[in-house]
Amino acid sequence: LMANHPASITVSRLRSSMAMVCGDGQIAKGGVESRHSSSGCAELLWESTFPDVNTFDAGYLTDWGLMHRENTAIERAIRQVPAAKEVMDIAGVLEKMFCMGDGRELLRG
User: Fold this and answer.
1) Of 23, 46, 49, 66, which has the fewest beta carbons less than 10 angstroms from its beta carbon?
2) CB-count exposure of residue 3 (10 Å: 0-12, 13-18, 19+)
């Protein structure tokens, strides 16, 4: 499928240039300890590029980006502190009023 792309991304080209597949939790499972749902596209791409993946000592060379792991940990911590949750809810309302933010409040409101 990707070989038809104008960049001519073939499996052999990927094998010679790909060192790791990184992404957020939507595409990267994050390893055996992950607790989020994911399509696992990063792992699927790695496996289709390197079908002999079991020969690598490291296994899958995929990564769930640190920024997203930190955001998830921070959000969980905020949910456990009622005062912090209230501050974040107020910030969300202000973001909605002034059309700023990541869009979550705009869709929710």
Assistant:
1) 66
2) exposed
CB 42 within 8 A of CB 28: yes
What SS3 state is found at 4?
A: helix
**End-to-end alpha carbon distance in the chain:** 40
Query: How many angstroms separate the CA atoms of 90 and 101, rounded?
Result: 13
CA dihedral angle for residue 26, residue 28, residue 32, residue 34, rounded to 10 degrees: -30
Question: Looking at residues 58-64, what average pLDDT do you find?
Answer: 66
CA distances from 74 to 62, 68, 71, 79 (A): 23, 10, 5, 9
pLDDT class of 99 with cuts at 50, 70, 90: low
- For the entire predicted model, the pTM comes to 0.52
